[in-house]
Each structure stands twice: as structure tokens, then as C-alpha cells.
Amino acid sequence: MKALAYLAGATALAAALSSPAFAQTEIATGANATGISDVNEQMNDVEDAVRDDFDRSSDAYRYGPPDRAEGIYGSVALSYVGRTGNSENQDFSLSGRLSSNAGAFSQSVGILLEYGEDNNGDKDTEKTSTIYEGMYNINDRFYGFALGRLTTDSLADDPVSLDDGDTFEDLDGRMKRDAYFGIGPGYRIINNDTTAWRMQAAVGIRYTKQVDVIDPVAETLELDSDTGVGYLVSSRFYHRFSDTFFLTNDTDYLTSDANDTATNELGLNFKMSDAFATRFSYKTEYVSDRAIRTDNTLGVSLVYGF
Prior knowledge:
Layout: H1 2-5, H2 14-17, H3 31-34, H4 36-56, E1 71-83, E2 89-102, E3 105-117, E4 123-137, E5 142-153, E6 175-191, E7 195-215, E8 220-242, E9 245-255, E10 260-273, E11 276-287, E12 294-304
Antiparallel strand pairs: 1-2, 2-3, 3-4, 4-5, 5-6, 6-7, 7-8, 8-9, 9-10, 10-11, 11-12
């Protein structure tokens, strides 16, 4: 539910992330054959993950709408990988985002397409996701917002999409369709130089189509659809203890007839200098209809440039 949880913004640690730790490295001649390129790509993935972790730790909307360019802008990205030889498969992804800012009103819509084939030439991935975010700032404290998401997985009920080691029973509970659209108000309760706390609530429509395995031995299943009212409550808390240390706590709760989903992420963020910053986070995710309802994740992100 992350797409419903965040109105993403820039981080207060941007200075650290623009340090030499993330400087672009030229690849030497012969790097592809010697495996250097593969290692470099993995290094880039780690750096991107750390950058994203820091970005999520700060709330650009905590004091009001951030300064952004007026007008319409967007981006499109496409990726295709086709493999032959020891492996015969292919993967394709396409993403696009269109945003618009006009005075107090801002909105964006995005789409993600994913397609893949396994070594037998069978489709093993066919997913489509769309998201929508809108915000109207009434004043520095009050705002209205809208959030929407639609995710479809055409192969959710197809065993071809199972990972190695999975059984037919692992299809149970997978989402064929999952959608939510809600609107509501938001209010910045505390809004000073050291502490910011805002809450928002939405009411909307939740639609799901879920896989229900009837008999794993006979490999029979059915799809259960559910449409109902979905209620979303979110909290964003930020407190700066000093110029080098701040705490964040993000909480989201979505309830509907389909299930209840709740996430809470506590973050401790240290910016020792423009070259050194670190973040410790503890995230709890609860989903009411899972066999093990709660997942806990401890995260440590560090960046050092010299």
C-alpha cells in the first residue's frame, strides 16, 4: 500500500546524497568480460536503495506545499532485456508519469507495465499498475487530497508465475485485481521550526479480486471479488533534535471488507556532515488476512563521501 501511503517529497539529507559517495564512476575497457560491469551495477543498486531510503525519511509537505515549477511535465522510461544461449527468456517494463502544478492544486498520474517470459517461452509476468495523487492546499494547515491505485496481475491464478520451490497452494491469497480510490482532508496539527505533525483521512472505494485455492491436490481454485468502502488514516510526524539529528514516524492504516492493512515506520536520521549521514529505521507491516499477519524490518542506511 505504499502507493497510497506517501505523498513523496525531497529529503532534508539531500546535501549528503549529492556528495562524492554517489559520484558516477567510469567503467574501464574490458569491464564487461571481466565481470566488473556486473559488480558496478550491483553497487549502483545499493546506492539507489540508500538514496530512496533517505528520501522517504523526510516529509516535504510538513510545513506546507513545497516550491515547485508551474505547468505540466512528465517522464517515460522503458527497459527491455532479451536473453539467448544458456537462458532463453525476456523481460520488458515501461513506466510513465505525468504531473501538473497550478497554483494551490497539484496532481500526478503514473503507470507501470511489466511483462516477462521464462525459458520455456511462457509468460511468467504480466502486471499493470496505475497510481494517482492530487492535493489542493487551502492554507498552510488545511489541505484536501485524493489517492488512487489500480493493480492487475493477469497471472495471479496461473502456476506458471510461481517461483522455484513454490507449490500450487502458494497461489492462495494472491491478488488478481486490487484497487482503491479515496478523497479526504488533511491538517497540520503542529507546524513549527522543530516539530511537524500532520494527519489525513480518506474515505473511498476498495475493490479486490483474490485467488482462493479450493483443493491444492486437484489444483482447483476460484476468484473471489469484493467491493466495499475503504477508510484510510495516515500520520506523518517529524521532530528535529538538532541540526544533525531528527526523528520521523510514519503511520498508515487502511481498512475495508477485503482486509486491514497497517504500516508504521520509525526512523532515526543523523547528518554528521555534508559527507556523512546515516539512518536507522524499524518498520512494522500488518495485513489481517495473512497466515503470519505481521512483518518487521530493521533497516540501516549509511552514506559517506570523501
